[in-house]
């Protein structure tokens, strides 16, 4: 199964997809005149600005809802799997994809508000499906349907359910080593996995049944607190190992461009190392920050605002927070440990690699680090489960023309997938998530390229009016 999934993953995340995603970000960076560099300060100020207009959520709530879906296992487990599979250079490609992806996130969220649909009861539905259908025309509806279908499949089979619960139970099992409960298909599962999985499934079910407003309330409280705790943990590693940071950065850049492989003098191997780093870094980067994936626009669409550009600015900060800050904490901790000859990974990956690296960097017996990592991962992944349930429900709502009986049935299926998630392997769930993420990104990025002129026009108009003092 892993071999089959690996081949599909290589096909989906081949050179054409990588070029498409990076080209989208670069094009939008040019057409918005480097908005992620020139307007980043304004964007962070905009987060806490009160807004008014049609919609269901504040800008801050929408950002937290989007971050609840992005800051999850990708930041702790995904970074580790990327480095394990693609080498330390994968972290560089995560950074590169995030920098250009910030412009992508801005554009897709801004367009989601411009083309959203407000229903008679005041509820709002928007996202890449309406951006494609309304922005590109009815003849492109098939592409919108394709995106929504991949969105439902991605949430149900990968990024929303199995990867998140699998990450949580792996961390719980690592922190609370218990006896084996049962064996299945040659794998043994402990009581920690069984009980932890059941508790998370029940808690998720209680929130999911409450819908968007309950999800956003949980996200507002949990996401900022957990992000601060985890960043503090990462900063502790950097401060305590400050002298090793330059060597870590050197290893990242050498690996990213195949310098180590070049020393062996085999050109084919050099190209393979670079491609592996690019593939794993960009794929896991998108898994983490979701720039270009088309998910964050679904959370941005219900914002109470009259200005699409303003919420685009707010949401683009999510990519900076997620990848350039939180993922960097994990990546540097792992690479700093790898720079020490006394550190041995012994083929481990996922949360075990992150935990072992943090414990090695900070010293001590590692028990406290394991427990703190478990808490952070549990809350991060739990909110991601909630966020992706919302995304996929909106995709399904679009596909079924708002027939809520299908949505209610889907919630039951979603909860069942959470329940079985702990019993897949880490490699399986992340490969499936990579595949579905890539399939979502392709139609979304195509629409962003085609509508890049609209993005440029809206952006220019907003800042011209802002400079004239026409906006409060």
Describe the 3D structure.
The protein is mostly helical and 472 residues long. Helices cover 76% and strands 3% of the residues. It contains 22 helices and four strands. The protein has a two-stranded antiparallel sheet. Helix 1 runs parallel beside helix 21 (426-450) and helix 10 crosses helix 11 (191-208). The radius of gyration is 21 Å and the shape is globular.
| Strand line-up in the sheet with most strands | 1-2
Count of DSSP H/I helices = 22
Total DSSP E strands: 4
Q: From the structure provided, what is the oligomeric state, counting identical versus distinct chains? A: single chain
Helix content: over 70%
Low-confidence stretches are 262-267
Instruction: Provide the β-strand percentage band.
Output: under 5%
Order of helices and strands: HHHHHHHEEHHHEEHHHHHHHHHHHH
Based on CA atoms alone, the radius of gyration comes out at 21 Å
Summarize it:
The chain has 472 residues and is an all-alpha fold. It has helices spanning 2-12, 15-31, 35-38, 40-46, 59-70, 73-86, 89-114, 128-136, 141-157, 162-175, 191-208, 212-240, 245-256, 259-262, 267-289, 296-300, 308-338, 350-362, 367-399, 404-420, 426-450, 452-467, and strands at 117-118, 124-125, 180-184, 187-190.
């Amino acid at each position: 199964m892993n071999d089959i999934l690996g081949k599909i993953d290589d096909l989906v995340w081949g050179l054409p997809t990588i070029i498409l995603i990076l080209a989208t970000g670069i094009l939008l960076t040019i057409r918005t005149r480097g908005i992620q560099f020139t307007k980043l300060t304004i964007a962070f100020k905009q987060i806490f600005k009160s807004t008014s207009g049609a919609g269901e959520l504040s800008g801050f709530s929408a950002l937290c809802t989007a971050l609840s879906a992005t800051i999850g296992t990708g930041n702790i487990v995904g970074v580790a799997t990327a480095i394990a599979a693609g080498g330390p250079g994968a972290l560089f490609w995560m950074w590169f994809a995030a920098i250009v992806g910030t412009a992508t996130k801005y554009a897709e969220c801004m367009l989601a508000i411009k083309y959203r649909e407000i229903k008679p009861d005041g509820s709002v539905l928007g996202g890449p499906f309406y951006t494609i259908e309304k922005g590109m025309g009815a003849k492109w509806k098939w592409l919108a349907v394709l995106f929504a279908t991949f969105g439902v499949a991605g949430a149900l089979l990968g990024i929303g359910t199995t990867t998140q619960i699998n990450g949580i139970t792996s961390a719980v099992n690592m922190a609370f080593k218990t006896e084996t409960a049962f064996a299945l298909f040659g794998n043994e599962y402990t009581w920690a996995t069984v009980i932890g999985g059941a508790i998370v499934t029940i808690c998720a079910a209680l929130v999911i049944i409450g819908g968007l407003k309950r999800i956003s309330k949980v996200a507002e409280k949990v996401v900022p607190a957990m992000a601060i705790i985890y960043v503090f943990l990462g900063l502790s590693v950097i401060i305590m190992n400050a002298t090793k940071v330059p060597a870590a950065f050197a290893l990242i850049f050498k690996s990213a461009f195949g310098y180590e492989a070049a020393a062996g003098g085999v050109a084919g191997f050099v190209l393979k190392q670079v491609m592996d780093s690019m593939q794993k870094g960009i794929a896991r980067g998108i898994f983490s920050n979701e720039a270009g994936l088309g998910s964050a626009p679904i959370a941005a669409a219900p914002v109470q605002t009259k200005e699409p550009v303003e919420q685009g600015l707010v949401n683009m900060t999510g990519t900076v927070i997620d990848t350039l800050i939180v993922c960097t904490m994990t990546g540097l901790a792992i690479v700093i440990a790898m720079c020490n000859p006394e550190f041995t990974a012994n083929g481990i990956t996922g949360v075990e690699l992150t935990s072992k690296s943090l414990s090695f960097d900070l010293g001590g017996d590692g028990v406290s680090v394991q427990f703190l990592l478990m808490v952070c991962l549990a809350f991060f992944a739990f909110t991601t489960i909630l966020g992706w349930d919302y995304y996929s429900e909106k995709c399904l709502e679009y596909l079924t023309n708002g027939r809520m009986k299908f949505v209610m049935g889907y919630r039951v299926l979603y909860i069942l997938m959470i329940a079985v998630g702990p019993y897949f392997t880490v490699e399986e769930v992340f490969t499936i998530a990579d595949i579905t993420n890539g399939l979502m990104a392709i139609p979304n990025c195509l629409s962003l390229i085609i509508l890049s002129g609209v993005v440029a026009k809206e952006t220019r108009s907003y800042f011209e009016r802002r400079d004239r003092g026409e906006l409060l």
